[in-house]
């Protein structure tokens, strides 16, 4: 990756982080302060949705941090180091937790008559999408692991060749 693509990625990650922090620290408390619903079904749906938003923010923040660290390693040329694998695992786990939370939210939406069945189905589809993303990142982690082993083998061969010459 070039210098401009790394800078562009970090700008996008900064905007994403600012947005999630705004939702978590400003929007969710504002909604809770101005809540006037008295119906228990409304409170269950609203509480579930706000809890989901907060958890989604934590998941996004985790992924932003890990991608930022990986981008920094790419910039330094140290991405094919075994330590890079430690930044991929939290992304996989974050998407797995996010998919479980999304399925739970879809189940809560499905139990009420106030939410259209299509909305519950769409939320469930988003959970399935998150499972797919988690699997894709897992495959990419395995590719990074193979590339790391190949890089280590190449360095070992260069050392041996230097000793022969």
Automatic annotation (TrEMBL):
Pfam families: DUF2975 (PF11188). This is DUF2975 domain-containing protein. InterPro entries: DUF2975. The chain crosses the membrane at residues 12-32, 52-71, 91-109, 115-140. The keyword Transmembrane applies. It comes from Glutamicibacter ectropisis. The keyword Transmembrane helix applies. Keywords: Membrane, Transmembrane, Transmembrane helix.
């Amino acid at each position: 990756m070039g210098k401009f693509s790394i800078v562009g990625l970090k700008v996008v990650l900064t905007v994403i982080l600012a947005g999630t922090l705004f939702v978590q620290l400003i929007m969710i408390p504002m909604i809770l302060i101005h809540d006037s619903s008295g119906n228990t079904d409304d409170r269950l749906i609203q509480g579930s949705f706000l809890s989901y938003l907060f958890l989604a923010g934590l998941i996004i923040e985790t992924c932003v941090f890990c991608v930022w660290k990986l981008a920094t390693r790419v910039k330094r040329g140290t991405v094919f180091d075994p330590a890079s694998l430690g930044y991929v695992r939290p992304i996989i786990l974050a998407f797995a937790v996010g998919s479980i939370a999304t399925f739970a939210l879809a189940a809560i939406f499905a139990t009420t008559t106030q939410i259209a069945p299509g909305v519950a189905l769409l939320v469930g589809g988003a959970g399935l999408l998150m499972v797919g993303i988690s699997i894709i990142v897992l495959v990419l982690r395995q590719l990074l692991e193979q590339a790391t082993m190949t890089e280590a083998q190449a360095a070992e061969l260069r050392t041996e060749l230097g000793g022969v010459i």
